[in-house]
Amino acid sequence: MAPYSSARPGDPYFVTIHTGEGILGRFDMAAFLDGNPGASVHAASDAGGVVAPLVPYDRAAWTAGYTANAWGLHIELCAFAHMTRAQWLSESDIVLWIPWIGENRTVRSPMSMLRNSAAWVREVSNLYGIPARKIGAAELRDRVGGICGHADTSAAWGETDHTDPGPNFPWDVFIALVQGQEDDHMPEDPNNPYLRKSDSEYLAREMEKYNNERKRGDEFVVVTLSAAIAELSDDPSLTKDEVRQIVDAAEQQQTAELKAHIDATVADVDEQALADALAARGIGGASPAEVKAALAEVLRRGVGVS
């Protein structure tokens, strides 16, 4: 739960849609906000579901300027405001070039994310009697209830200059989903996670699934990286001494960028488990420090593993 919030002057009368612009997992978004003293949000959504409440609904999250914070409920979608309508409605994952990052990023099944987000919006709208309709700046200023984007709150009060969720956000489809209209875009899932007793129970289940996924991911990294290092050692053009020299050189010449990349990529990998996996492949006797150095060399050389 994001710890940064403030008291409301009254019940919220609108829900605001935001895009995260770079953080592409709901739990990653929650973790980022948990350590950010200047920002918070009530919910975060991706293709897998919604994590909420990150801020109690009866308190103001810090996400869109004083007035919008005071009177709104806010959800971050793990997506980008420059997505096209077709990309928003894609059932499949999409790949976007992000100019300010200088790399491609993958948004998982945006249509699934819209469904998940709409279910949460419907839930909190029912809780506070907020109508399932799109509203703009004029309605916001007149205290007309509904659903809007961050761009609308910016236009209403001028307290921020954000334009998310962007000009191509499919408001017609999204509002229909919030209204519960069952069409080709609605899921047929009897295990809908929104049919739950409470947000806290749902969050506990989601966190358990997330931790299990992380554990499986760590095991996968150990196996694949041990295979990669073994492949490096099996290179017929390298003698054992040369392999050792490569490892030693890598340990001495790691750049800060490479170290940061390693930390971000395999921060939770058990070095001893990786050493044991290497030993099982015939490369025994490596210390944790040597394993880390060899890992750095694998990443530096880009050794591929099928």
UniProtKB/TrEMBL annotation:
What are the recorded GO MF terms, alphabetically? Answer: N-acetylmuramoyl-L-alanine amidase activity
Q: Which Pfam families match?
A: Amidase_2
Location of the N-acetylmuramoyl-L-alanine amidase domain: 14-167
Per the record, the coiled-coil ranges are: none
What are the GO BP annotations of this UniProt entry?
A: peptidoglycan catabolic process
Q: What is this protein called?
A: N-acetyl-anhydromuramyl-L-alanine amidase AmpD
Q: What organism does the UniProt record list as the source?
A: Saccharothrix variisporea
Q: What lineage does UniProt assign to this protein's organism?
A: Bacteria, Bacillati, Actinomycetota, Actinomycetes, Pseudonocardiales
